[in-house]
């Protein structure tokens, strides 16, 4: 039986219209790719790092979202639908609206997805306001409302080692809240608890040291080797080596559990140990079994922290490697660079840059970027958002 015909083909097809997808499409055009297609159903584009500042009362939602149509490069053919299957042998992507799109090379940048089902009751708690999360964009203002309203009681913040987008930046709303409570004179009346399911908050020793300094400064209790297993009414259910525990809370901020988009595993693009995320050579960003498929961002099993700073490096490598692979040249290598900006107050920030071996890789030589400073806060709050909208999404960085 002959294969079903395709409705459209592109020299390079990009799946996903977030940071990675849009900037890849834009850079491909700038590097001379004659025909770029984009598959993404989103109507709104979010600059997600600012969601934490919304939760800290330092930013409005309107500053971090724009119509998707305004950021898709005009010369990119935008398929306003979702990818539901990839056939690597036929080099075809099937979409939710039934469209079949052929490709020469395919760049997968679909991101990760919240999976509240992993923690029973958590999704419902965020929806009805019993819990909050800056990671849920539309609900981010609720974080600041509850922080302002809390004058005493127990505030619980969570961090976990599972796949997540910008994992360490979940510390931002906690530190900004503590700084606000200190300024309001109520911090001593609030029991702030950080629940961490491992023995370390960060894999890099120098960054861990900086974090611990500020945890101690605010008097935050750290519950190590403790996982959140459920949320019931205004009680968070924990599991530690000592057994289960029920901890009542007055404020609960959650880092969502994540999962990979289902079509990756359904299409056989994952591998043993990737937990449904796309298998990929972590240095060349090429799929190990399908040489015309490339994987970047939160949807790929890259063995490094999932951050926007890391994604910028990945985009440059993947665009260059598509060119090199077509010419039979040696592929460029991505060293796993990533960056986790952590606000330590409402006006200072630690800028930890590191690679997949947990080695510090500062962009500015001889400067301790991990040390919390006002200048890094200004960069993160104002310079990077401007760079994102005007440079990164246009393929200029």
UniProtKB/TrEMBL annotation:
InterPro entries: FAD/NAD-bd_sf (IPR036188), FAD/NAD-binding_dom (IPR023753), Sulphide_quinone_reductase (IPR015904). GO terms for molecular function: FAD binding; sulfide:quinone oxidoreductase activity. One of its GO terms (biological process) is sulfide oxidation, using sulfide:quinone oxidoreductase. SUPFAM superfamilies: FAD/NAD(P)-binding domain. Residues 10-132 form the FAD/NAD(P)-binding domain. Transmembrane segments: none annotated. It comes from the Bacteria. This is NAD(P)/FAD-dependent oxidoreductase. It comes from Auraticoccus cholistanensis.
């Amino acid at each position: 039986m002959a294969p079903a015909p395709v409705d459209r083909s592109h020299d390079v097809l990009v799946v996903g219209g977030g940071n990675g997808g849009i900037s890849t499409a834009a850079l491909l055009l700038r590097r001379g790719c004659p025909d770029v297609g984009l598959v993404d159903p989103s109507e709104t584009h979010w600059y997600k790092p600012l969601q934490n500042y919304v939760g800290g009362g330092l930013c409005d939602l309107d500053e971090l979202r724009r119509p998707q149509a305004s950021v898709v490069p005009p010369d990119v053919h935008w398929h306003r639908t979702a990818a539901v299957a990839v056939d690597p042998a036929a080099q075809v992507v099937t979409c939710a609206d039934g469209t079949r799109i052929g490709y020469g090379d395919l760049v997968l940048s679909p991101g990760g997805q919240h999976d509240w089902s992993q923690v029973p009751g958590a999704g419902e708690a965020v929806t009805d306001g019993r819990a909050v999360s800056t990671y849920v964009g539309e609900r981010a203002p609720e974080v600041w409302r509850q922080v302002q309203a809390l004058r005493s009681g127990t505030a619980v913040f969570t961090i976990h080692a599972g796949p997540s987008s910008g994992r360490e930046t979940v510390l931002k709303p906690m530190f900004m809240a503590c700084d606000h409570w200190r300024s309001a004179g109520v911090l001593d009346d609030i029991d702030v608890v950080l629940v961490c399911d491992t023995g370390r908050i960060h894999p890099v020793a120098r960054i861990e040291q900086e974090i611990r300094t500020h945890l101690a400064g605010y008097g935050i209790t750290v519950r190590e080797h403790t996982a959140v297993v459920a949320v019931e009414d205004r009680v968070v259910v924990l599991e530690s080596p000592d057994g289960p525990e029920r901890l009542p809370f007055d404020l609960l901020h959650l880092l969502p559990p994540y999962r990979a988009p289902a079509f990756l595993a359904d299409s056989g693009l994952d591998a043993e140990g990737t937990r449904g995320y796309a298998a990929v050579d972590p240095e060349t960003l090429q799929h190990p079994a399908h040489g015309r498929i490339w994987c970047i961002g939160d949807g790929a099993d890259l063995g490094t922290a999932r951050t926007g700073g890391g994604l910028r490096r990945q985009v440059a490598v993947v665009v260059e490697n598509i060119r090199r692979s077509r010419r039979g040249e040696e592929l460029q290598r991505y060293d796993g660079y990533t960056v986790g900006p952590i606000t330590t107050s409402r006006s200072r920030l630690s800028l930890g840059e590191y690679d997949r071996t947990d080695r510090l890789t500062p962009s500015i030589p001889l400067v301790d970027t991990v040390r919390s400073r006002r200048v890094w806060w200004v960069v993160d709050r104002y310079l990077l958002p401007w760079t994102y909208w005007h440079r990164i999404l246009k393929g200029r960085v």
